[in-house]
Design brief:
Number of helices: 17
Radius of gyration: 21 Å
Helix content: over 70%
Number of strands: 0
Distance between the termini: 68 Å
């Protein structure tokens, strides 16, 4: 395998010197990059993911990268790579996900657990959080990803926290992700989202949301989850919990 210095040089060329990404791929750059992704050397993985991130920005190279088998390897780096490599993987997967076949390949690689782990461990207002939520917005259209998210401890909460504390772009993607869940099965996911405290973030976002793109989603999601607050059975349960809390407080 080539030395780290060689890979650094190759990555530099890809990132800074070469503008025609199609020619780079046609020249056979993908094969060695896949080898570096398989490496146990975190530096090689980092340089390879940086190069693939750059290549993934081209609409003509996205299908080729997907067909090369890069996506499962990228998800493996997302699970165990160094922090910079993980950040670049999320960006690359988001770029690649705009192609239907690539999105299916991402689904097959089971990306939800490492995505949530990355989201929980980083700043909610970071670019990485923005892209995590943007990718989740696409993935949560599929039942297997919704099940995976709700099976992860703190999975829904991690998305709600971006809604509360993220950048404006990240918050809008978080709304899109949560709305996708509600639209798929309101009765199944509405209370999960509500119980994680989504209401304050939604109310604030209705004021700050970029019009007109994000505003409709915010209003629709607000309507979805606040409807349950008007449900008589739910209100009764909330009152019962409050009464039990008061009794317990008096006893102590």
């Amino acid at each position: 395998m080539p030395s780290v210095n060689y890979v650094v040089f190759l990555s530099y060329c890809l990132l800074h010197l070469c503008r025609n990404k199609t020619k780079i791929v046609d020249a056979g750059a993908l094969e060695p990059l896949l080898g570096y992704l398989r490496s146990s050397d975190p530096n090689l993985q980092e340089y390879a993911t940086a190069a693939l991130l750059t290549l993934s920005t081209s609409s003509t190279t996205k299908p080729v990268i997907g067909a090369s088998g890069a996506i499962p390897l990228l998800v493996e780096v997302l699970k165990g790579g160094n922090p910079q490599a993980k950040n670049d993987v999320v960006m690359a997967l988001y770029n690649l996900s705009t192609i239907a076949d690539n999105l299916q390949a991402i689904l097959s690689a089971q990306p939800i657990p490492p995505l949530i782990e990355l989201l929980k461990g980083g700043k909610r207002s970071s670019k990485t959080a923005d892209k995590c939520c943007a990718l989740l917005e696409s993935l949560l259209a599929f039942d297997q990803c919704r099940v995976a998210l709700t099976s992860e401890e703190g999975g829904v909460l991690a998305v709600v926290e971006v809604l509360e504390e993220g950048s404006l772009q990240g918050r809008e993607h978080a709304v899109g992700a949560l709305l996708t869940m509600c639209e798929s099965d309101r009765s199944r996911y509405r209370d999960l989202i509500l119980n994680e405290g989504a209401i304050p973030g939604l109310l604030e976002l209705t004021v700050h949301c970029r019009a007109p793109e994000g505003a409709p989603n915010v209003l629709v999601l607000s309507s979805f989850i606040t409807t349950s607050l008007l449900d008589p059975d739910r209100r009764r349960r909330r009152l019962d919990r409050r009464q039990r809390w008061r009794v317990t407080s008096v006893m102590h």
